[in-house]
Specification:
GO terms for molecular function: nucleoside triphosphate diphosphatase activity. This is dTTP/UTP pyrophosphatase. Its main location: cytoplasm. This protein is 33% helix and 25% strand. It is α/β, with parallel strands linked by helices.
């Protein structure tokens, strides 16, 4: 294994946990208070979920690479990822509050949706990117079940208003694709990118 390290440009503890499974040393490279990270996630008119998640990941990686250079940090590969939930062409981002979470969960109830996670790695001037697409089917949920889960606080900060590794698992009938991708960092695709950067996975 390479003795180097990478920067992880993500606030998600789930991504850090998944990355740690590779045994690759990493340091967080987070946006500063002066950066408007939320604006990067704005959806463009008519944008497809695939185009959206890939574009946002690229923008976040651009910002992270510029941040590393601005701070004068040691040179090392920078990894970034973004996850979105899509019901058809409708993008379900992070809920604004519990009521918004209830709205999203009502849409997902009894339906199959896609979870798209784009991951990108910048190594010097080289950039490698990959996309993981999974399908998740929710069982039909009652209004009471939806309200209880939304009130738990778990949906906040999660694309599509749920966390597959949390209490929402009780309502997930079937998944097809990458479980780790649904969590936020597809392990297979990420390993491929790290190998290209010289890490032995």
């Amino acid at each position: 294994m390479s003795t180097g390290f990478i920067y992880l440009a993500s606030q998600s503890p789930r991504r850090a946990q998944l990355l740690g499974q590779f045994g690759v040393r990493h340091e967080l490279l987070l946006a500063g208070a002066d950066e408007d990270a939320e604006s990067l996630e704005a959806v463009l008119p008519g944008e497809s979920p695939t185009a959206y998640v890939q574009r946002v990941t690229g923008l976040k990686l651009d910002a992270a690479v510029a941040r590393r250079q601005r701070l004068g940090l040691a040179d090392a590969p920078v990894l970034c990822a973004d996850t979105t939930v899509a019901l058809g062409r409708t993008i379900l981002g992070k809920p604004e509050d519990a009521r918004d979470a209830e709205r999203m969960l009502a849409l997902l109830s009894g339906a199959t949706h896609r979870v798209l996670t784009a991951v990108a790695l910048q190594h010097g001037r080289r950039r490698h990117a990959a996309l993981s697409v999974s399908r998740v089917r929710f069982a039909a949920m009652t209004r009471k079940q939806i309200a209880r889960y939304a009130a738990s606080g778990e949906p906040l900060g999660k694309a599509g208003a749920y966390a597959i590794q949390g209490a929402a698992a009780a309502y997930i009938e079937h998944i097809s694709g990458s479980y780790s991708g649904i969590m936020g960092l597809p392990m297979f695709e990420t390993a491929q990118l790290l190998r290209r950067a010289g890490f032995i996975i």
